[in-house]
Amino acid sequence: MGLSRIVGFFLLIAYSPLTCLGIRTFPNNGGFNAHFGFSEAPDYRNGVECRSSGEGSPETCDPSVVHVAMTLDSEYLRGSIAAVHSVLRHASCPEQIFFHFIATEFDPWSPRVLTRIVRSVFPSLSFKLYIFREDTVINLISSSIRPALENPLNYARNYLGDMIDPCVKRVIYLDSDVVVVDDISKLWEINIPERKVIGAPEYCHANFTKYFTDSFWSDPDLRRVFGWRKACYFNTGVMVMDLEKWREGQFRKKIEKWMEVQRKKRIYELGSLPPFLLVFGGNVEPIDHRWNQHGLGGDNVAGSCRALHPGPVSLLHWSGKGKPWVRLDDRKPCPLDYLWEPYDLLQRERGRGRGTLQHLPPLPYSIF
Length: 368
Fold this sequence. Notes:
Layout: H1 3-15, E1 23-25, E2 32-33, E3 38-39, E4 43-45, E5 66-71, H2 77-90, E6 97-104, H3 111-121, E7 126-132, H4 160-163, E8 170-174, E9 178-180, H5 184-188, E10 198-200, E11 202-203, H6 214-217, H7 220-223, E12 233-234, E13 238-242, H8 243-248, H9 251-265, H10 273-280, E14 285-286, E15 315-317, H11 324-329
Parallel strand pairs: 5-6, 5-8, 6-7, 10-14
Antiparallel strand pairs: 1-4, 2-3, 8-13, 9-15, 10-13, 11-12
Helix pairs in contact: 9-10
Family: Belongs to the glycosyltransferase 8 family.
Membrane topology: Single-pass type II membrane protein
Keywords: Glycoprotein, Glycosyltransferase, Membrane, Signal, Signal-anchor, Transferase, Transmembrane, Transmembrane helix
């Protein structure tokens, strides 16, 4: 449990030139946006192997662009900003990343305010904000085991094919509680075969049956949906989506159909995940687990902490009830929450301390 090993590992993730391949410059104004409470991020520029930054910001339909979609809302904004920061920090060509942000019109912070905040934190970021109308999905949402899972914004990923410009043929969808510690272009470049629509890490050791109720499994017509497919659990917080095939196959309607069945028969308990499993389970292009080290938020037991799965890490995901910014603020962090903190751009109050490396345990796995 040597401190030198811990410090070295921490610095490898946060500051290593091997992982941060872009070029960073720092803002001249002290980096603080007083009105919004976030520090301005460093200005991340392309490496020498990328297109010249002098060519201007990429257009939405530029074929060389990496497209990333995320949601924005007042509750998870701090996490979303940290996620964007992590993507840019580790990208070899950060200027060629285009973000598609989805917000609701009735959030306490309006889409206009959220746009201003993002622009103030990332002045040179290429992005577009879309307004997701909650009435699109509100009548399809059923109650869940956790009220947070009933948020209409959780279902925005179902509508990316409708909202994003038709010229965008592929997008990486990321939840707001992730940090990326690898070059996201590696995830972007994975191959999705002709008969598949999405790529995601699969977890076939998980008990798949628990994601649906007994009434689902006892109904021969319902359980027949999986047929020959060897369905495995996958987490919808990190997906590569082929939007061209998504639109052609009308997969949004297929998901909505299962949401309608749920309203009538109560076939699952977990919000927006089970409809994806019903439509895509057993037909997902498996991606290396390094791209979704999920479950770091723990389960529903207060104060529970999780360790990483064995193996290399490219993306850390605090799925679950606990969020790192909440636990850090409460001074009750889990050890891995300190790996999220370097990407946090919230301006600290004077006198407030940060976590120290002494809290980190030995971490017997590699990053790359």
